[in-house]
Design goal:
The structure holds 2 protein chains of 2 kinds. Chain A is of the alpha+beta class. Chain A starts with a helix and ends in a 7-residue tail after the last helix. The N terminus of chain A is likely disordered. The relative contact order of chain B is 0.12. The chains are: A alpha+beta, B alpha/beta.
Chain lengths: 204, 434
């Protein structure tokens, strides 16, 4: 229980950079996209959530202090406000830098009834890390998450924007092998997907 | 009665996800019809059809439609709540993935009826497949002048945007969703009577119509087929009309979404899902994890309907129907549900933030075999301090399942506390309490 709530390493949490240290790192494409997203809402503040997704893509899957400071700067909001929003939502990686692939194991009611703990234990044994930890090679992060709403596919897991389920240990092993050979980071790919789906065709 | 496919009729058909295929199946006739109708006539049709919100509370939809200002003084907004998070529910996911045009058309009709300017579809970020399908549908609708400026030459302007969430169950609550859309932490806001209804002052303090995905899809059916036709569905029930999609999961042979008419016995839903697997039926949670659990005997006599479900002391809720077999340990069910609510509590109000954690602490100690004689009373006392005293309905939802479990299966809790172990011969998969 307490394990599920306290996530990550306090030393890796975002820290506000000094004003002179803020560097704007968004790519040209990213700048265009955040401006297009701002047009979707009557206020700039509403663009904080999409802006953070964009930053998560641009900063390699982790919302560091620099990333949050850049979003705050571009939307004319304070650092504290944007950080407050970023740390509320579980899909923003603010607790620590995640691995290349984040494996989110659903352990909620239906998956629980269908043996999610076995899957979780297998994963812990195989990768040697626990909930909220990343393997030493920076490849995988395991997270136990609440309902993914794939109860018909229980036990289900999510990696990036893909759902997998129902899974047994053998299929999980195959999936991990497949992910090991995947060049691109699914964490970054996921953030990129979320950004692109909010933009109309031909808008940028 | 068997399945009655109204919304999910073409859900297995891949062409239904393209504009051509959708129109070939009779799509967009509803919008064309709506554009020739008076605005008030559409709201009256929603009222006459007896549509009730499909998100969980089951409030009559016309209260929202009819409550929107008739004279337009400022921008009107529409929001579609696609932030489905209730454990056991996956109907909105299927509608987004397989029937995106039904939602887009339904929202456009609503936009016409309440003079909306922009509609936001707030989609849970995990539902990438659904979001991509809706994006494609919106883009195609724009290209065919079914969205945007001067829709079909009638002078109506309506835009649809997708707003992705970022992982929070609380954002499924309508005021919390509006906070999230405005770029804040997803925490609920004051409600009526302390604050005006969203239809008077919602997102950005402008009139806002907010509905669940299934409600908007139903609105399109009502306009298309007529209110009387719709009101005839489920006429055997007291006050529930139309169909309801149930997401059946748990220990069943064929989990999935099944759409049934109101008035269908709950037992038939179980039969549609291929019956119970791994033993006899023990219990059922009929409407998502927030709803009270019922026994196998109650499953036999329960009728699906908002009022009818009250006779077995449960509710239709969001339609996440979970069936449990005889090897299910109800105490562990209560513990797991409590963990969910403790993890997802937004932390705004004290009864919910603290109370959900206390519930977990007490249930966890029972599950680990250290239960104390007064623990059942303690759980009841905690529940009485959360129920009705929290800021939003989340607190109520967190205590109902636990209280119902204690009410329906008291002997299991007593046995667990007395003997330090479960009276159910549980499967190994259910044993682990981390």
């Amino acid at each position: 229980m307490s394990e599920l709530i306290q996530l990550g390493n306090p030393h890796q949490r975002p820290r506000q950079p000094r004003p002179e240290d803020v560097k704007l790192k968004f790519s040209e494409q990213g700048v265009k996209e955040i401006e297009a997203l701002m047009n979707h809402y009557p206020t700039k503040k509403s663009c904080i959530l999409p802006g953070l997704w964009l930053a998560q893509r641009e900063y390699g899957g982790f919302l560091s202090g620099d990333a949050i400071a850049e979003v705050a700067h571009r939307l004319d909001r304070s650092y504290a406000e944007v950080e407050g929003v970023a740390t509320f939502y579980t899909l923003y990686n603010t607790a620590h830098k995640p691995g290349k692939h984040k494996i989110e194991v659903c352990t909620c009611l239906c998956c629980h009834l269908n043996g999610a703990w076995n899957l979780r234990d297998h994963l812990v044994k195989k990768l040697g890390v626990r909930h909220g930890e990343t393997t030493a090679d920076g490849m995988f992060t395991i997270e136990e998450v609440e309902c993914l709403n794939a109860c018909d596919r229980a036990p289900a897991i999510q990696v990036g924007s893909e759902y997998y389920g129902p899974l047994d240990e053998k299929q999980l092993d195959d999936l991990i092998e497949k992910l090991r050979n995947t060049e691109e980071s699914t964490v970054v790919q996921y953030a990129a997907d979320v950004v692109s789906v909010q933009l109309r065709r031909g808008e940028v | 009665m068997a399945e009655y496919k109204l919304l999910l009729e073409h859900s297995k058909d891949p062409t239904f996800r393209t504009l051509e295929g959708y129109i070939a199946k009779g799509g967009y006739t509803g919008l064309k019809k709506a554009l020739t109708m008076e605005r008030s006539a559409i709201c009256d049709a929603i009222k006459a059809a007896g549509l009730r919100g499909r998100g969980g509370a089951g409030a009559p939809a016309f209260l929202k439609w009819g409550g929107m200002p008739k004279e337009k003084k400022t921008n009107h907004y529409l929001i579609c709540n696609a932030d489905e998070g209730e454990p056991g529910t996956f109907k909105d996911k299927e509608l987004l993935e397989n029937c995106p045009f039904s939602l887009v058309e339904g929202m456009t009709i609503a936009g016409h009826a309440v003079q909306g300017d922009v509609g936001y579809i707030y989609i849970r970020a995990e539902f990438m497949d659904g979001a991509k399908a809706v994006r494609k549908a919106i883009d195609e609708a724009y290209a065919a002048n079914l969205l945007g400026k001067d829709i079909l030459g009638t002078g109506m302007n309506f835009d649809l945007e997708i707003h992705m969430g970022a992982g929070s169950y609380e954002c499924g609550e309508e005021t919390a969703l509006m906070s999230s859309l405005m770029g804040e932490r997803g925490m609920p806001r004051l409600k009526f009577p302390s604050a005006p209804f969203p239809v008077a002052s919602g997102v950005w303090e402008k009139p806002t119509l907010i509905h669940n995905v299934e409600s908007y899809c139903n609105a399109q059916v009502i306009v298309n087929n007529g209110a009387e036709w719709f009101a005839a569905l489920g006429a055997s029930t007291k006050n529930s009309r139309g169909t309801k999609i149930f997401s059946v999961s748990g220990h069943v042979n064929k989990p999935g979404n099944y759409e049934v008419e109101f008035g269908t016995p709950l037992r038939e839903l179980l039969e549609l899902a291929g019956g119970v697997r791994g033993g006899k039926l023990k219990a059922c949670v009929p409407g998502g994890s927030s709803m009270p659990i019922i026994t196998a005997e109650d499953v036999d006599r329960a009728i699906i309907g908002y009022e009818e479900m009250g006779e077995v002391k449960s509710m239709v809720g969001s339609g996440g129907c979970m069936f449990f077999n005889e090897h299910t340990d109800i105490v562990k069910y209560a513990w797991r549900t409590a963990v969910f609510y403790a993890n997802e509590s937004c932390g705004k109000c004290t009864p919910c933030r603290e109370g959900t954690r206390w519930q977990v602490q007490v249930l966890e100690r029972i599950c680990k075999g250290y239960g104390r004689p007064g623990d059942i009373d303690l759980l009841k006392q905690i529940a009485s301090q959360i129920d009705g005293r929290s800021f939003c309905p989340f607190g109520d939802a967190a205590v109902w399942p636990i209280m119902a479990a204690i009410r329906v299966f008291p002997q299991e809790f007593e046995y667990y506390i007395e003997h330090g172990k479960s009276m159910v011969d549980s499967k190994p998969s259910l044993v682990g309490v981390p």
